[in-house]
Design goal:
With 140 residues, this protein is α/β, with parallel strands linked by helices. The chain has a single domain (10-137), classed as 3-Layer(aba) Sandwich (Rossmann fold), CATH 3.40.50.1010. The chain is 53% helix and 12% strand. It has 6 helices and 5 strands; from the N terminus they run βααβααβααββ. The protein has helices at 14-21, 25-33, 41-56, 61-71, 82-98, 104-116, and strands at 10-12, 37-40, 75-78, 120-122, 135-137. The protein has a 5-stranded parallel β-sheet. Helix 1 (14-21) packs across helix 2, helix 3 runs antiparallel to helix 4 and helix 3 runs antiparallel to helix 6. The mean pLDDT is 93.
């Protein structure tokens, strides 16, 4: 029996996690409805960069770090491997051939989604440039 697309597992990109943390109602609702949520290691690195950046700007590092820890209570980390690297290589080659690059970390995130066969929950429309990527796109 096919999985309901409204409750299917999802891979969260950095923008989706941030939107959830700041209370974007539609994204939070979709995350809560998901059977399982995953976050690729690359997105976790970007989020942790934000923690260090907030400290440098004089904001509370502990507060920002706690937000990420709350996300990690329901989102499982997906680690890259050989297949992720292969997907990355395929995607970046296809983007370069079309002259349509996107940020490198986002290609790694998309590669993880493709590797694991998960729809990517995102707020970034540039992911539409990657052919065959299953997207759940939320815009402002």
């Amino acid at each position: 029996m096919p999985t309901d697309p409204e409750t299917a597992p999802v891979l969260l990109d950095t923008g989706a996690v941030i939107a959830h943390m700041v209370g974007h109602a539609e994204i939070s609702k979709r995350i809560r409805a998901s059977e399982r949520c995953f976050i690729p290691l690359t997105a976790l690195g970007e989020l942790r960069h934000g923690v260090h950046k907030s400290e440098r700007k004089g904001q509370g590092r502990a507060k920002e770090a706690a937000k990420i820890e709350r996300v990690l209570r329901f989102a499982e980390i997906l680690y890259p491997g050989d297949q992720t690297a292969d997907e990355y290589g395929r995607m970046i080659d296809a983007l370069e051939a079309k002259g349509q690059r996107i940020p490198t970390n986002d290609i790694w995130i998309a590669a993880a989604a493709a590797q694991y066969g998960l729809p990517l929950l995102t707020t970034d429309a540039h992911f539409k440039r990657i052919d065959g990527l299953d997207l759940i796109l939320f815009t402002s």
